[in-house]
Amino acid sequence: MKGFEAYMKSILITVEGPIGIGKTSLSRELSRAFELQLLEEIVYENPFLGKFYENIAEWSFQTEMFFLCNRYKQLQDIHNDYLNQGISVVSDYNIFKNTIFSKRTLTGENLPKYLKIYDILTEDLPQANLVIYLTASLDTVMKRIGLRDREVERSMDVSYMENLIADYDEFMKAFEKHHPEVPVIKFDCDDLDFVHRPEDLRYVLDRLEPQIRALKA
After folding, report:
1. What phi and psi, each to the nearest 5 degrees, are found at residue 15?
2. What are the strands, taking DSSP E only, across the chain?
3. Are 28 and 81 in contact (CB under 8 A)?
4. Per-domain residue ranges for the chain?
5. C-alpha count within 13 angstroms, C-beta hemisphere, residue 198
6. Is-contact 131 17, C-beta < 8 A?
7. What is the pLDDT tens value at each position of the chain, 217 positions in all?
8. Which residues, 6+ apart, have CB-to-CB distance to 205 below 8 Å?
9. In the CATH hierarchy, which fold is given to the domain comprising 12-216?
10. Measured between alpha carbons, how far is 75 from 85 in angstroms, rounded to an integer?
11. Distance from first CA to last CA of the chain, Å, rounded?
């Protein structure tokens, strides 16, 4: 954003919400507007993802472990290469999403085993200074997933997506209660399309700018 100068203090901003809601698109815009280093999660390189959408019970543990290990490595690198050097970062995910997805997909002994590994790996990782939460109805989310037409998502179960949206809402309410020190800014994407409507993007950036300035001051 014009006139938005760099500060010495580095912060981590994460953008979260259900699949297909626009996290990566918004993160890229924030990176450009506020001169932030961009971190994009590794998704479609996951060799288990296509099989996961076809048979969640069979491939959930392999899928979740791949995501956890890759996100752990990414955040380690971001911490060492950018945050520790005074460079602020915007990420199109927060690592807490691993717990949201795993509690929906893992069953039996796999869930406590996975959560134990998660706790160990994330203990010393950098935490977000600001969480941007994108939410929308099932109809909106499924429409946007359909528009981007990614082959791996074509077999996605609608009921899985519906449950995931509900899981996100429940998790974020708990997160705000237990982490009052971390501001959460929520945008309802049923009413916003910052990808195709410049005025919607301007609204989002204008709302976020004071919070980002305050955190970096």
Report:
1. -110, 125
2. 12-16, 37-39, 89-91, 130-135, 184-188
3. no
4. 12-216
5. 0
6. no
7. 444 444 458 999 999 999 889 999 999 999 999 999 999 987 767 777 778 878 878 888 988 998 899 999 999 999 999 999 999 999 999 999 999 999 998 999 999 999 999 999 999 999 999 999 999 999 999 998 887 777 667 767 889 899 999 999 999 999 999 999 999 999 999 999 999 999 999 999 999 999 999 998 8
8. 1, 29, 30, 33
9. Rossmann fold (3.40.50)
10. 14
11. 16
Per-residue tokens: 82: 């950018």
Give the tokens for residue 70: 């890759």
Task: Compute the distance between CA of residue 212 and CA of residue 35 in angstroms, rounded to an integer.
Answer: 11
Instruction: Supply 205's token pair.
Output: 């950036």
Residues forming the active site: 92
DSSP letter assigned to residue 3: T
Whether the CB-CB separation of 50 and 66 falls below 8 Å is answered with no
Residue 36 contacts residue 65 (beta carbons within 8 Å): no
Residue 22 · residue 194 · CB < 8 Å: yes
- Contact partners, residue 49, CB within 8 Å, separation at least 6: 43, 63, 152
